[in-house]
Amino acid sequence: MAIEVRIPTILRTYTDGEKAVNGEGATLGDLLADLETRHKGIEERIVDGGQLRRFVNVYLNDEDVRFLDGISTALKDGDSVTILPAVAGGSK
Description:
Blueprint: E1 3-6, E2 20-23, H1 28-38, H2 42-46, E3 47-48, E4 51-52, E5 56-60, E6 63-64, E7 80-85
Parallel strand pairs: 1-7
Antiparallel strand pairs: 1-2, 3-4, 5-6, 5-7
């Protein structure tokens, strides 16, 4: 089962600069654990206490996983997962 994971610039230090990597897993949690085996440190930047970090958005085929099953969202071969850090701020 191959799932493409798009990596934001800020996390590319964990993927040797790669914009996208492949992973495997029946759920998003499994996929992130699989990525951790090849890209040490990446999982803890996305997950905290078994849940997605508050300021990290994850999309499955362009749909926010928070509106699906979160870290338990089921995945299938050919899916695309995009990880995006939340952006906040602005001018006064």
